[in-house]
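Tip: read the tokens left to right.
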């Protein structure tokens, strides 16, 4: 079977979504097809997405079920389920060791692997896979059952690994007795590490510290005190250019450690209420190459003009600034507009102090500004009128949930600047808030009462079942999800330019 028979496969890349029924009943014909797709196309990169469990209700979108057994549209899923005696099975089934080992034997040139909800996958299966696919470059796993031994097997065998993303690794249960993960031979090549929703993400400390070429570190909703580890990481790993911290127990001590990353260009601080002006000043004074700064202050009022003025004074290369739940005034906005001449993207969300006067200041002094997002701020039509004659390079304005702005005001702005894209949404403010997995903030809202007086995150009580642990984790970290204008706007703004590997060339 040639690659040309599969329009969803790009030349030089094998991509298949493998469900439980297709792997557990993997026929010799299917194995032959996978093998031919691999070696006949002579791929430099290969990719397999193991997506389990797959619901047997037949409602999975067609485009997520590429054929691996036929030349045209592949086997009908309902027929396959009936042949395998699964038509009346209402339970989810998961990819296991045997299936993953089969992939590793037939696809030894595999470079990218994505595992989701593979709860029957064990340390032994991961170890066997790692020995067969030593050229792996990207690994992403979420809600899988294997633990530290399986992860260490990958790190000990895959010397070309560049990107590692781990979310809710269920095989690591006891925080105190968790086996250290890494560094292994993979530490020499790792450039990106992303850890999400882990009780004990700190057991990855040896790996992070040992990854001397690490460029991007993302930590989302991982419990425990991260201050000391961040200090050690910044001392040992000096080349980091991008750091994301979201709903993490980190204070100014951790930010002081981060300030040792002198090449830092991108920093996201999302809902870290123990971080204050002092920590931001420390980062500003040493990380002078900063280009992108996202702060979700959760309306804790711990970061204000003092920290923003320090950024304005020390980081003249700033191109993108996102402030959510932060209250800047004319003092800091004037300084940012005057000193950061390259500022092109600005988002102000949930700020009680950003009104017409502040928008007028931005309009008059932010000469390079191209895109502006204003959400849940006390701005009126007068502020939009100021934009009519300011910001000569402005191409897009998004205004959402600003009660003082009327459709007539938006129409006036469109009429006065026909080349300007004006997006107005006057719906009522929402009551929840979250940040996306990519680090861009979602809806702006008040934090829990505890956020006003930050306290240490208690060590989670690990239950005997994964379900109990998941419920406890969500309740402790207050996970909220959703999509909003800010996340959408920032994704369009970035346009793929936030990659750490190309950040210097911008």
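Filled-in amino acids:
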């Amino acid at each position: 079977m040639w690659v040309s028979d599969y329009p969803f496969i790009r030349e030089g890349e094998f991509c298949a979504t493998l469900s439980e029924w297709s792997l557990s009943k993997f026929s010799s014909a299917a194995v032959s097809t996978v093998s031919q797709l691999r070696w006949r196309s002579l791929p430099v990169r290969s990719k397999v997405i193991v997506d389990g469990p797959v619901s047997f209700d037949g409602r999975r979108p067609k485009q997520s079920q590429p054929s691996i057994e036929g030349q045209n549209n592949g086997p009908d899923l309902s027929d396959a389920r009936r042949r395998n005696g699964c038509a009346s099975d209402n339970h989810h089934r998961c990819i296991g060791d045997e299936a993953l080992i089969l992939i590793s034997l037939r696809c030894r040139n595999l470079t990218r692997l994505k595992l989701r909800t593979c709860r029957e996958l064990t340390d032994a299966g991961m170890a066997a896979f790692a020995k067969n696919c030593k050229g792996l470059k990207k690994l992403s796993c979420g809600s899988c059952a294997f633990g530290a031994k399986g992860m260490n097997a990958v790190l000990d065998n895959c010397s070309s690994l560049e990107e590692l993303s781990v979310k809710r690794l269920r095989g690591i249960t006891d925080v105190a007795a968790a086996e250290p993960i890494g560094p292994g031979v993979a530490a020499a090549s790792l450039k990106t590490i992303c850890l999400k929703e882990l009780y004990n993400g700190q057991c990855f400390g040896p790996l992070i510290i040992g990854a001397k070429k690490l460029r991007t570190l993302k930590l989302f909703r991982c419990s425990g005190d991260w201050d000391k580890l961040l200090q050690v990481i910044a001392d040992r790993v000096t080349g980091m250019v991008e750091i994301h911290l979201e709903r993490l127990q980190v204070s100014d001590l951790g930010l002081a450690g981060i300030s040792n990353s002198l090449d830092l260009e991108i920093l996201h601080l999302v809902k870290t209420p123990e971080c204050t002006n002092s920590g931001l000043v420390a980062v500003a004074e040493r990380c002078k190459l900063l280009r992108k700064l996202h702060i979700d202050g959760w309306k804790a009022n711990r970061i204000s003009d003092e920290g923003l003025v320090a950024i304005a004074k020390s980081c003249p290369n700033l191109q993108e600034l996102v402030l959510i739940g932060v209250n800047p005034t004319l003092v800091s906005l004037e300084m940012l507009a005057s000193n950061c001449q390259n500022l092109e993207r600005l988002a102000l969300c949930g700020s009680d102090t950003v009104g017409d006067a502040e928008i007028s200041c931005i309009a008059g002094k932010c000469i390079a500004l191209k895109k502006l997002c204003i959400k849940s701020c006390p701005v009126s039509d007068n502020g939009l009128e100021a934009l009519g004659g300011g910001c000569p390079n402005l191409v897009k304005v998004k205004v959402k949930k600003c009660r003082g702005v009327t459709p007539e005001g938006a129409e006036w702005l469109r009429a006065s600047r026909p080349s300007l894209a004006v997006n107005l949404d006057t719906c009522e403010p929402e009551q929840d808030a979250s940040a996306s997995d990519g680090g861009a903030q979602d809806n702006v809202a008040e934090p829990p009462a505890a956020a006003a007086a930050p306290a240490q995150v208690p060590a989670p009580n690990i239950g005997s079942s994964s379900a109990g642990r998941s419920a406890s984790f969500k309740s402790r970290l207050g996970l909220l999800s959703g999509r909003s204008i800010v996340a959408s706007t920032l994704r369009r703004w970035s346009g793929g330019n936030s990659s750490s590997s190309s950040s210097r060339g911008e």
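Residues 1-214 form a domain with the Leucine-rich repeat, LRR (right-handed beta-alpha superhelix) fold (CATH 3.80.10). The CA atoms of residues 195 and 219 lie 5 Å apart.
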